[in-house]
Amino acid sequence: MTSNQCFEIPESWLHIELGDVVDYGKTTKVEPDAIGPETWVLELEDIEKDSSRLIQRCTFSDRKSKSTKNAFNAGDVLYGKLRPYLNKVLFADSDGVCTTEIVPLQGNPAVYGRYLYYWMRNPIFITYVNQVSHGVNMPRLGTDAGKKAPFILAPMPEQKRVADKLDTVIARVDACRERLDRVPAILKRFRQSVLSAATSGSLTAQWRAENHREEDWPQVQLSSVAEEFSYGSSAKSSRTGAVPVLRMGNIQEGQLKWTDLVYTSDPMEIAKYRLKAGDVLFNRTNSPELVGKTAVFNGEHDAIYAGYLIKVRCSDRLLPDYLNYCLNSPAGRDYCWRVKSDGVSQSNINAKKLAAFEFLLPSVREQNEIVRRVRSLFAYADTLESRCAAAYGLVESLTPALLAKAFRGELVPQDPNDEPAAELLKRLANQRSGEGKATKGTRAKRAAPVAPREEEPTSVE
Predict the structure, then answer these.
(1) Which residues does the annotated region (Disordered) include (predicted)?
(2) Burial class (CB within 10 angstroms; exposed 0-12, middle 13-18, buried 19+) of 18
(3) Which of 40, 304, 315, 351 has its CA 20 to 30 A from that of 403?
């Protein structure tokens, strides 16, 4: 068994090369001046990697392309030969033209188009093309290598059954993936709703009623309940050292992430910028969407903070976690958006503007209850997020598993009445041979009146 024949297949199937049945690399070129304004123009970026989902459909009038294109017809398999590890394959549902980095392949009496489409998404084919592609930064599958690619030929009726079954089951997988894709946005909205309720008083309204606490929630400026607003270190850090230097990238989703760290060993810097548990870190410079993100330092590790961060130290009236919730809430994000100063590519919020932030301040006792409830709800959201990620991983593995199963002959039952693949190829070869003889005979008959000229040599020495 060769490297292309690495697993068992039904007796009526064949291990062959793609070029035995498909004219890989044969294309019809079209110049821009011959393309109609409403013609579909497909580029590689229009195809989503791995899923082969069409992201967008543009016409020639949309793109106004100036380069030569490959023409294709409805029913063609469109294979992205550039960076083939991206696994971009599309089954054309209408005629059009595409970049020359996409190779149109046609079905024929030996190969059913959708069967070919699924084979080119098969892990075996992908592994092969990744091994033989040439080019370091922009690898491509060459024509000769494409023709020598492994191919599993099934009887034609079974090719159709396999393709039909894959259409059904992969559509279900794609539907499941689309639903899971919506979960992160739903959880983000949930967390924002929790913060909005937590910082407006609605989250603990029942708690106040049960505890007979009719306390006011006065509106205060941060400057009145915080003791310190300090900018971080501007000294250069390194990848190794004694103490981590927390940067804006370490603030993610209202928490500190202890990854991608840089360090310092300068004792003066460490003494000046050392953080204490309960310090709130505010990102003062970032993109317009991210400036103002905030997290609480809980003393997990000894650390200092970098210059794009502002350290806020709260008074006894304000819990750090509650301030974190306020600044990360929809109202807090809206405040940051309104007061930021925009530069060319980044925005800035200075300590003065941060100190002027106004929010509702309940009692410390109620702040503690708010923190407890928010942590509980966020833990629930985190659990759902983890389960979603695990489910997404399973879904991502389903399509390759289904494709592998399909091309082992295990997805649909074999029909003993199907013409075996070997007989199919033999029959088609005989048909071509018969057509060739007929064509040759016709040509000979037409050429008969022309006698060879004796002065013309029949061989060259």
Answers:
(1) 427-461
(2) buried
(3) 40
Encoded tokens for 69: 């294109």
CA distance 400 to 79: 17
3-state class of 220 per DSSP?
Answer: strand
Residue 389 lies in a domain: yes
Is 438 within a domain?
Answer: no
DSSP-derived letter for residue 108 is B
pLDDT value, residue 436: 57
- DSSP helix/strand/coil, 245: strand
Whether residue 347 is found in the same domain as residue 367:
no
Q: How is 3-36 classified by DSSP, letter by letter?
A: TT--S---TT-EEEEGGGTS-TT---EE-GGGS-
Give me the long-range contacts of 331-338 (CB less than 8 A, separation at least 24): 331/196, 331/199, 331/200, 331/359, 332/199, 332/292, 332/294, 332/357, 332/359, 333/292, 335/292, 336/291, 336/292, 337/288, 337/292
What tens digit of pLDDT does each residue of 288-340 get?
999 999 999 999 999 999 999 999 999 999 999 999 999 999 999 999 999 99
Are residues 183 and 318 both part of a single domain?
no
Residues 6+ apart with CB under 8 A from 197: 203
368 in the same domain as 230: no
Per the listing, tokens 């793109």 go with 63
Answering whether pTM is above 0.70, one says: yes
Give CA–CA dist 44/56, Å, rounded: 11
Higher-pLDDT residue of 62 and 2 is 62
Q: What share of the chain is helix, strand, coil (3-state, %, to 5)?
A: 45, 20, 40
- On whether both 195 and 230 belong to a single domain, the answer is no
> Measuring CA to CA, which residue among 55, 159, 95 is closest to residue 407?
159
Which residues form the domain of 320? 220-356
